Each structure stands twice: as structure tokens, then as C-alpha cells.
């Protein structure tokens, strides 16, 4: 028998799939403290997570039977991959299932920030009728600069072209030929910063991308640019963004992800009117959650029963 612990909320379809395997004993417990997790993991062969469970070195070291840590979703910021690899534990994610959903959220944020939709909604619900105050901007024919043309960046580009935006992109790890074949103009980072009316980031958070959009980068942007971050907190420096908004360089920002989640009450973006915020909702649709739950279940089943490894990091 294999013991499977699901320690974050996972869509029912994935849990049912895991439970249908006769060789699996599945425990779903989404309220474990870190100390409790360290105890429970001792008996587990697989740990299935989303983003809340912090799979730190001590948890991994306690997992003497642990064979696989499987993330329903993309980002593995909450897993100590080095510690897992050293212990011979496979770490896998589900890189496909929430791509469309996250790209759609990016486009939703882009339109929301352009047309002041959340602010206007709050104002109307507060009994006001402020038509002048919430005049927005068309996105038609505007330049959208995409940083990171991976799975999500490509879908964002495709949807933005449907809105008749001019899409340019910077990605040092994808050849400009490939980018151009996607119908996107490949440019340098500096050119993207200088030309874009909207900038959206779709990279992982790495040493290289942390603070990629910082004070210096904001200085190179067009006055009136809009910034969207639906990737990872920290790629856009939050203090510098707040400053750039106050200075009038940035006209508005839409942010789904934060350096610390949830952001503390004194976070510099929380009280700025030109900022639209969502609580890490990029992947939060019924469809995406079902996709990643089914994918993670299939991958754990295939690995434990057949030794087939998919989407290992
Ligand atoms: P991906 O790996 O498919 O693509 C990332 C791209 O970024 C790659 O093409 C890579 O070459 C590029 N890149 C890496 N370093 C770069 C740099 N320094 N400058 C420019 N480009 C660089 O990843 P993805 O699936 O498209 O995910 C993108 C991001 O979105 C990740 O951070 C992921 O965690 C995040 N994400 C967020 C949500 C959410 O809920 N908000 C949901 C899913 C994914
Ligand atoms: C991801 O990395 O997949 C997203 O951030 C969504 C999530 O938190 O699951």
C-alpha cells in the first residue's frame, strides 16, 4: 500500500482519481500545522500540494518513505527542490492545466486597469455616479510588452492580438525566430521598456528576474505605462512600483501576486487608487483547478505504480 497525503485543497476529480486506486490509502488534510505535517509526512509515500503547504527541508528530511512531491499547479516556490533532490524524492508539477486560465486573468486585469472597472464598481456601490473620474484608455493598437514568452506569455500574446494590440516580447531563452514565428516582435528588454504602453511579466521568479522591474527599469518606461503582474511577487519591485505610480510614470497597475502573500496591511500598493489587486486568483477557475487536480493524480499514479516520471523538475 502507498500512503498519499493531500495537504492543500484539491479539486474533487483529482481526489476521486487517487482514491480509486486500490493500492492507495489517501488522506486529505488541509489544516495541518507545519509541525503536524512533519509528523504525518513520516508515513507518506506521496505528498500532493498546491501553493499553501511549505515543503521545507525539515519536512523533506522527516519524509523517510517519501517518493514524490507533486504540485497541482506550476510554481514550486514552496518546495525546497534541492533538499528533495538530495534525498532522491521526485518533485513534479502540472505545467499545462492552468495556462489558459492565467492568461485570461492577465487579460481581465489589463482591461480592468485600463477602464478602472473595480474602482468604478466600488464608487457606484458607495452611491456615487463618477463618470468623468473613471474615464479610461482603449487597448486597441496599443503596444503590449510581454516579458517571458513561455506557456502563459504565448497565450496572452494570442489573446492580445485578438484585441488588436501590437505585441512585442523579451525572452532571452527563446530564440527570436521562435518568437517571430508566434507573430510577436522580439525585442531587447530596454526596447520593450521604452516602447510599451502595457507591460506584463510571465517569467518564473529567479535570481535574474527578482526586481526585474525596479526603479531603473521604471525610469526607462513611457510615461503613462500600465504594469501587470500575474506571474510571481517580487518580479516587479513593489516599493518601486508604488513610487513610479506616485511620480506619474506608471498610470496604473494590476497585481495578482505579492512578495509576501497575503500582503501586510501597510503594503505600499494597498492604498493606491490606480492599482487593481486580486488575491493570487490567476489559476482560480473551475476548469483550471480540475485540470491540475486530474493531472497531478495521473502523474502520482503513473509514478508510484509504473515508475513513469512526468513533469519532474
Ligand atoms: P514557462 O516556464 O512556460 O515560461 C516562462 C518563460 O519565462 C520562459 O519562456 C523563460 O524563457 C522566460 N524567462 C525566464 N527568465 C527570463 C528572464 N530573465 N527574462 C525574460 N524571460 C525569462 O512558465 P509559465 O507556465 O508561462 O508561467 C509563468 C509564470 O506564471 C510563473 O512564474 C508561474 O509560477 C506563474 N503562474 C502564476 C499563476 C497565478 O496564479 N497568478 C498561475 C500559473 C502560473
Ligand atoms: C501556479 O503556480 O500554478 C499558480 O501560482 C497558481 C497556484 O497557486 O496554484
List segments where confidence is low: pLDDT < 50 over at least 5 consecutive residues: none
Taking Cα atoms only, what radius of gyration do you get, to the nearest Å? 21 Å
Straight-line distance between termini: 26 Å
Supply the helix-strand structural class.
alpha/beta
The biggest sheet, with number of strands, parallel, antiparallel or mixed sense and barrel status, is: 7 strands, parallel
Q: Any overview of this molecule?
A:
With 313 residues, the chain is α/β, with parallel strands linked by helices. It has helices spanning 12-19, 34-40, 57-62, 81-86, 99-114, 117-125, 151-162, 176-181, 189-195, 215-219, 238-246, 286-306; strands at residues 2-6, 24-28, 46-49, 68-71, 90-92, 143-147, 166-170, 185-186, 198-201, 225-229, 250-255, 275-277. It has twelve helices and twelve strands. α7 links the parallel β6 and β7. D-malate is lined by residues 50-51, 73-75, 98, 280, 282-283.
Give a quick precis of the structure.
The protein has 313 residues and is of the alpha/beta class. The chain is 36% helix and 16% strand. It catalyses: (R)-2-hydroxyglutarate + NAD(+) = 2-oxoglutarate + NADH + H(+); (2R)-3-phosphoglycerate + NAD(+) = 3-phosphooxypyruvate + NADH + H(+).
Q: What are the defining features of this structure?
A:
single chain; about 325 residues; alpha/beta; 7-stranded parallel β-sheet; 5-stranded parallel β-sheet; 12 helices; about 35% helix; binds nicotinamide-adenine-dinucleotide; binds D-malate; phosphoglycerate dehydrogenase activity; NAD binding; amino-acid biosynthesis; serine biosynthesis
Amino acid at each position: 500500500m502507498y500512503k498519499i497525503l493531500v495537504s492543500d485543497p484539491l479539486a474533487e476529480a483529482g481526489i476521486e482519481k487517487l482514491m480509486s486506486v486500490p493500492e492507495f490509502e489517501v488522506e486529505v488534510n488541509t489544516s495541518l500545522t507545519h509541525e503536524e505535517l512533519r509528523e504525518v509526512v513520516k508515513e507518506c509515500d506521496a505528498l500532493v500540494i498546491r501553493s499553501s503547504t511549505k515543503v521545507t527541508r525539515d519536512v523533506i528530511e522527516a519524509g523517510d518513505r517519501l517518493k514524490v512531491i507533486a504540485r497541482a499547479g506550476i510554481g514550486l516556490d514552496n518546495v525546497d527542490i534541492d533538499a528533495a533532490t538530495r534525498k532522491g524524492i521526485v518533485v513534479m508539477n502540472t505545467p499545462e492545466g492552468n495556462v489558459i486560465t492565467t492568461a485570461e486573468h492577465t487579460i481581465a486585469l489589463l482591461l480592468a486597469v485600463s477602464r478602472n472597472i473595480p474602482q468604478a464598481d466600488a464608487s457606484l456601490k458607495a452611491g456615487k455616479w463618477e463618470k468623468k473620474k473613471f474615464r479610461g484608455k482603449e487597448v486597441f493598437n496599443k503596444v503590449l510588452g510581454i516579458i517571458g514568452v513561455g506557456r502563459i506569455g504565448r497565450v496572452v500574446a494570442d489573446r492580445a492580438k485578438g484585441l488588436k494590440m501590437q505585441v512585442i516580447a523579451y525572452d532571452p531563452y527563446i530564440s527570436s525566430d521562435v518568437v517571430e514565428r508566434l507573430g510577436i516582435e522580439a525585442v531587447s528588454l530596454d526596447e520593450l521598456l521604452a516602447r510599451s504602453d502595457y507591460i506584463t511579466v510571465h517569467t518564473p521568479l529567479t535570481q535574474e528576474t527578482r526586481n526585474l522591474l525596479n526603479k531603473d527599469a521604471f525610469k526607462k518606461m513611457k510615461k503613462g505605462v500600465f504594469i501587470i503582474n500575474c506571474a510571481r511577487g517580487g518580479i516587479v519591485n513593489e516599493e518601486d512600483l508604488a513610487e513610479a505610480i506616485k511620480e506619474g510614470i506608471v498610470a496604473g497597475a494590476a497585481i495578482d501576486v505579492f512578495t509576501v502573500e497575503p500582503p501586510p496591511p501597510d503594503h505600499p500598493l494597498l492604498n493606491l487608487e490606480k492599482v487593481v489587486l486580486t488575491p493570487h486568483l490567476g489559476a482560480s477557475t473551475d476548469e483550471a483547478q480540475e485540470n491540475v487536480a486530474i493531472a497531478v493524480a495521473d502523474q502520482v499514479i503513473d509514478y508510484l505504480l509504473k515508475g513513469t516520471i512526468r513533469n519532474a523538475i
